[in-house]
Amino acid sequence: MEIKTDIEIAQANEMMHIMDVARSAGIDEKYVEQYGNYKAKIDYSLLQDRKDAPDGKLILVTAITPTPAGEGKTTTTVGLADGMKKIGKNVVVALREPSLGPVFGIKGGAAGGGYAQVVPMEDINLHFTGDMHAIGAANNLLAAMLDNHIQQGNALGIDPKQITWRRCVDMNDRQLRNVVDGLGGKMQGVPREDGFDITVASEIMAILCLAKDIDDLKARISRIVVGYSYDGEPVTAGQLKAQGAMAALLKDALKPNLVQTLEHTPAFVHGGPFANIAHGCNSVMATRMALKMGDYVVTEAGFGADLGAEKFLDIKCRMADLHPAAVVVVATVRALKHHGGVAKADLNKENLEALEKGLPNLLQHVQNMTTVYKLPTVVAINAFPTDTKAELDLVEAKCKELGVNVALSEVWAKGGEGGVALAEEVVRLCEEPNDFSFSYELEGSIEDKIRQIAKKIYHAKHLMLLPNAKKQAAQLEELGFGNLPICVAKTQYSFSDDPSLLGAPQDFTVNVRNLKVSAGAGFIVALTGDIMTMPGLPKVPAAERIDVDSDGKISGLF
Questions:
Q1: How far is CA 42 from CA 27, 28, 47, 50, 258, in A?
Q2: CA-CA distance, 199 to 202, in Å (whole number)?
Q3: Is residue 304's pLDDT more than 70?
Q4: How would you classify the pairing of strands 547-548 and 523-528?
Q5: Is 398 a catalytic residue?
Q6: Which among 165, 412, 495, 508 is annotated as catalytic?
Q7: Residue 318 annotated among the catalytic residues of the structure
Q8: Annotated catalytic residue: which of 107, 192, 318, 470?
Q9: Is 75 a catalytic residue?
Q10: Model confidence pLDDT, tens digit, residues 512-532
Q11: Given CB 3.0 to 4.6 Å as the disulfide criterion, which of 128, 182, 413, 492 pairs with 191?
Q12: pLDDT, tens digit, for every residue of 20-63?
């Protein structure tokens, strides 16, 4: 049997017109702004008009620590929603937008896979409705206004050596991590060290995803700290009078995007912060819209549960007053064997010993969800043909010891039909009462909050704030930022800050080297280990395989 690629499956799908998708979600056409026949933005006035409507139940899909073997979190999210639709539930999906960095870097696409995808797949992966470009433009407008202010006399006394605002571009471009700009003479600007972040790591992205409306967006932008004066005082975007123009650039980007799954389930795809260096969740506005339109909303948070789920629960849910009904932790037998020390080339062979050794990674993520956050949880095993009954039975037995059920997910091969068993378990869990809690409270020092995340979620033995971070913590607390939540920037490949420590490592220390305030987003960013805010391309980037023919048909996305 010929195996079709993701893009071939997506291109063969007959999509519903976006107006029909909106109607199926109960969205009146007056709120719909079409971007062609299969994409639309939904005006934020819908939220105001439906503010008294009841909310549906919120389901978070997260995963084990990522490996080169793949986990299929977005695929499971989409397939679960289609499975819930199969059993007669009114369900809406809420996902992040892909960044061009990973699309052209390693992944080659991020709209799900197999028969569990959101479409139009090519559009979603490439430009979509222009949100990423608007965010980049707003970010770089602020950078331009900041440097212009210094050039034109520097009335605010900004110290060029203490500027924290960086430019951004939505591409993996390591060459831009550290640059010197303003060269060329007196009229070309003030020379200084600068750098670029990838757009999805920009505070503007975080702000767009956490803002509850356009007024909140503008207020958050005005609070952005761009650097410090010679007197050590924070300088904000509001002091540069940049918030109005930046909000004008973002007014359409703030509107959630509506698309559909292959099985025509309505899907909001909006915002795209990375979960290793940002907070890793789609926008609050899209989630709120979905909750007003569906009895159930299936959303995902990036990378493993120690990153995306922790930030979803401790940052997004706290800020937006969201209360999840259930959590799905996605795993594959192949990935668990990788955590048990098996090389990628040997993952298709049965290996119960390696699986047993790798299982603690899954079990630790599950326990974090059930005991720290106190949420009903199910494990979804993303099925591969090479999985053996003995391996699947072992995973199920170990999860049962924690009081958690396992559902086999076959959505990649079968679409919604392959997600019915998982859907039924999720619906059951959603009816259970839960005592959702955060992993830390906002009171207490910055260091104490990071320590609680490190010990409760990562299971670290020690936390070490390096001298620079110690000094920054004291300064931020003195400036009044001490009560903000924490957004840890950490490798996605380990519970620790060392990507080589697989499984569930013990006796490790988390090292925090840098702290910065994202005052507009409303959190403190703690940079650990060697994490970078601008990724680079791999030796063979996915871009080399992407092409377009004379009819405009794209190939190579997967």
A1: 9, 10, 10, 13, 7
A2: 5
A3: yes
A4: unpaired
A5: no
A6: 412
A7: no
A8: 107
A9: yes
A10: 999 999 999 999 999 998 888
A11: 182
A12: 999 999 999 999 999 999 999 999 999 999 999 999 999 999 99
